Amino acid sequence: MDTYARDGLVFQVRDSGPRGAEAVVCLHGFPQDARAFGAVGRRLTAAGLRVLAPDQRGYSPGARPPGRAAYVLPELVADVLALADAAGARRVHVVGHDWGGVVAWALAAAHPDRVRSATVLSTPHPAALRAAALRGGQALRSAYAAGFQVPALPERLLLARSGAALRTLLARGGLPGELADGYARRMAEPGALSAALGWYRALPLQRARTGPAAVPVAFLHGRHDPFFSPAAVHGTAAHVRAPFTSRRLPTGHWLPEREPAAVADAVLDLVARTS
To answer: Domains in the chain, ordered, with CATH?
Structure first.
């Protein structure tokens, strides 16, 4: 399966591994795409799992609807459920990084009947993020999200010099050069960066809050992640109503790309414990 459709949108997806095996859905964040999980996916398919890694809403060229309302969390969650349906997978293991982690938390809370386990990379539970913003220093670390609300200006700044500005930021943040180049080129496609920023610009429209996760969760976070405060990381355990493990890795934000073995091991441990 190379693509799947929902509500007139067409999503690209990397589908690898045995079709009849347990399915793992890998959800990237900003400004990544499915390539973020290349090394993770190879380890998971080698272990006999089926891996589905979509280019999510705003990132697939055929799924870039206009307007911020198209990027509210219920739409992002429904996209993943549609992928599972298209793949014939009643229940899946979900892996999410950055914004993909937000979607993974929402799935784990609202759809435990569709999710066997969740491996969340970098992103604390949304309730822990809100609490830490009030008293744990998270507000300063999230200030860039407020900047993304400004129309057009973030696009001009990040795409300056044909995307070189974004490429430089990603490389300085620890991404391997080849992936930094690839992500920046994708964001330079017409309308791509505005669509990806739609996830941030939809934040003022979010109504429902994510409840406690109701499936087993593995939470991996980087010691040097600049985007998430220790208070948010440590507060996450209180929002899981199922077996929970947490591991701090000696790296920064880009866990799928920089720590694929640790990520794959966490997923495989959950698969073994929930099968």
So the answer is: 3-140+207-274 (3.40.50.1820)
